[in-house]
C-alpha cells in the first residue's frame, strides 16, 4: 500500500520516468534518473527476488534508446543525477562512460556496503564509477524557498538539487527553471508515489506489524518533505512531477512531452 486510506485490492501500473534537462546557454545535458535497465536479471540477487515478488516489469525501452530518439548518445550526457539508488531509478550506468554522476551524500554508505561484499544488499557496490561520482555533502546545501537544503548546481540559478529526506538515504529532487520569466519544474523523485499524498488527500501508509508496508525509510521525514512540496502547489507556474506519475504519463504517453519533444512550461 502507498496511501492511507486505500483499497487493499487497488493496483497501480506506474511508469518509471527519467528526465533530460538541457542548459539553455551552453547546451549541457543533465539527466535525472535512469529508470529500469532491460537486463534486470543482472541486479543483485536480493533485488531480483524483490522484483519477482512485488514488481512485475514491462520495459519497452531504456534510457539509451530514449536518448537515441532525439539523436543523443550516452557520451552527450555531461551529468547524471540519481534521485536515489533503488533499482527503478539507477538503470544501467555502464554506457555512460563520460558522464559525472551526482548523488546524495548518504548514498555513499549504501555503495560501500553493497553487493557482493554484502550478499543481502540490494545495491551493487560497482553501480557508480568512483572517479566520476560526486556525493553531495552538508557544505553543499543552502536554504531555498520551503526547502532547508538545496544546491545551485550550475551557479546561475537555473537548476537546483534539493535534499529530499525520508524515502531512502541520499534521496534528492531537482528544481529547474524552464523559462527566464519565472516558470519552473520540480522533479520529486520518490518523495511521493501518489498524487493524493502531495495534495494531502491521503497520508503515507504504514503498518507497524509489517516492515515493508511503508514505501519510505523514514516516514516522518518523508511526510515533512511532502509538506514542503505541497507548498509549491500554491506558487504560480511551478509544475510538479513524480517519478512514477501515473496520471501525467497516461495523459502524455506517446506525445510531444517526451523526447525529442519537451514538457511545456507553465
Automatic annotation (TrEMBL):
Q: SMART domains, alphabetically? A: Lactamase_B
> Could you tell me which residue ranges the Metallo-beta-lactamase domain spans?
15-244
Answer whether the UniProt record assigns the keyword Signal to this protein: no
The domain of life is Eukaryota
Pfam families according to UniProt: Lactamase_B (PF00753)
GO MF assignments: hydrolase activity; metal ion binding
Which of UniProt's keywords are assigned here? Hydrolase, Metal-binding, Zinc
Under the heading InterPro entries, the entry gives: MBL_superfamily_lactonases, Metallo-B-lactamas, RibonucZ/Hydroxyglut_hydro
Q: Which cofactor does it need?
A: Zn(2+)
Residue intervals passing through the bilayer: none
Spell out the family assignment given in the record's similarity comment: Belongs to the metallo-beta-lactamase superfamily.
Tell me which PANTHER family the record gives: 102 KBASES UNSTABLE REGION: FROM 1 TO 119443 (PTHR42978:SF2), QUORUM-QUENCHING LACTONASE YTNP-RELATED-RELATED (PTHR42978)
Name of the protein in question = Metallo-beta-lactamase domain-containing protein
Q: Which organism is it from?
A: Hypsizygus marmoreus (White beech mushroom)
**Species lineage:** Eukaryota, Fungi, Dikarya, Basidiomycota, Agaricomycotina
Amino acid at each position: 500500500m502507498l496511501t492511507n486510506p486505500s483499497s487493499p485490492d487497488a493496483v497501480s501500473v506506474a511508469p518509471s520516468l527519467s528526465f533530460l534537462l538541457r542548459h539553455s546557454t551552453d547546451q549541457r545535458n543533465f539527466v535525472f534518473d535512469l529508470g529500469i535497465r532491460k537486463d534486470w536479471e543482472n541486479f543483485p540477487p536480493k533485488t531480483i527476488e524483490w522484483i519477482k515478488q512485488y514488481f512485475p516489469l514491462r520495459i519497452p525501452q531504456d534510457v539509451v534508446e530514449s536518448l537515441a530518439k532525439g539523436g543523443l548518445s550516452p557520451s552527450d550526457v555531461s551529468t547524471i543525477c540519481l534521485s536515489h539508488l533503488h533499482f527503478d531509478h539507477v538503470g544501467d550506468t555502464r554506457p555512460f562512460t563520460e558522464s559525472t554522476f551526482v548523488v546524495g551524500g548518504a548514498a555513499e554508505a549504501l555503495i560501500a556496503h553493497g553487493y557482493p561484499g554484502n550478499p543481502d544488499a540490494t545495491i551493487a557496490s560497482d553501480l557508480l564509477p568512483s572517479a566520476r561520482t560526486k556525493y553531495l555533502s552538508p557544505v553543499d546545501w543552502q536554504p531555498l524557498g520551503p526547502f532547508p537544503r538545496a544546491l545551485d548546481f550550475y551557479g546561475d540559478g537555473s537548476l537546483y538539487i534539493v535534499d529530499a529526506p525520508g524515502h531512502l538515504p541520499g534521496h534528492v529532487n531537482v528544481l529547474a527553471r524552464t523559462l527566464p520569466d519565472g516558470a519552473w519544474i520540480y522533479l520529486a523523485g520518490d518523495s511521493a508515489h501518489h498524487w493524493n499524498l502531495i495534495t494531502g488527500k491521503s497520508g503515507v501508509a504504514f503498518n507497524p506489524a509489517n516492515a515493508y508496508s511503508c514505501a519510505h525509510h523514514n516516514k516522518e521525514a518523508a511526510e515533512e518533505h511532502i509538506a514542503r512540496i505541497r507548498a509549491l502547489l500554491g506558487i504560480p507556474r511551478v509544475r510538479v512531477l513524480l517519478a512514477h506519475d501515473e496520471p501525467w504519463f497516461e495523459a502524455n504517453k506517446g506525445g510531444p512531452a517526451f523526447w525529442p519533444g519537451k514538457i511545456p512550461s507553465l
